[in-house]
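Hey L., structure's done. Input below.
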Amino acid sequence: MNWRKSIQNLFLAIGIVALVAMCHSLGFQEIIAQIKQTGLWLVPILGVWAAGYVLNTMSYKLIIDTPEKSKVPFIILYKITVSTFAINNATPMGLAGGEPYKIMAMSPLIGKKKAASSVILFSMMHFTAHFIFWMLSALLAVFLIPMDCTLAAVLTATFAICLTLTIITFKGQQSGMISKTLKLLQKMPLIRKPVARIAEERRETIETIDEQIASLHKHSKTRFYITLANELAARVLNCAEIHFMLLAFGGEPDFADSIIIMAFVSLFTNILFFSPMQIGTREASFILIFKILALNPVWAMSVSFITRIREIFWIFIGVVLMKIKDGKAEERQSP
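Output:
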């Protein structure tokens, strides 16, 4: 068994363990009861993410098609995208699992260096879309939520921090930032020497990756902004799952409320990213934002529970897709 197969099986095991752990923590009887309560609304709730992953895949394809088009079929990219997000949802720190898997899966198809640079750039685009989404949601909240001093200060700080991070990632996407990041790390006492050694030993590789990261903006600014727009559209589209859940529970929600709920919960859980599978943090964030929006607090727990069921479903799909092979794709090797 080669190392690539071993690592793939490790990621597969992580997904299966997380799947079992989530089902056990929720309770199989409760899962069945919530599915019955949600009824046919569960179909569009799950379908929203299928469509969102299409947008994510379109973004990634735009990245790997620069400057020349790749020959990787869209369906293969979609399969890898779904599995990547499944691993991210299954691991406490997300990117510690999903992105390495994606690099490993893409390396035989487009080469190791381009796989690494494309995954880094996609992650930067993904984060930038999050920052913009949180900024726009903060502005939306100003018009929809009664303000007090505390809430106004929180929204102002959120907007300012996200704007700063957006500017930083924009600059990194335009010029590459691996070399700059390593130079910054070399100034830190405890890690100065090992980082300097890595930077020197891998200098040529790092420069190539930085050049490839910057290539999308360099060769086609239009494609760059379309990629970012796709990622932002995916964030907004995913808000529809909250909308469908509230409709399933008998509410009459505004889509703007669903955007604010999704933005608040995603921001809260990303700040507490170290929580294993966001257990506890997500439930608390739903209860808090429902209270702020003066929505039925009972719905908060139901929405949180259905969100978990949706995650379980897509983790399962991602794990299954990891074991589905495409012979033609696997025969396509890049240097």
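Confidence is low (pLDDT under 50) at residues 327-335. Residues 112-144 form the longest helix (33 residues).

-- N.
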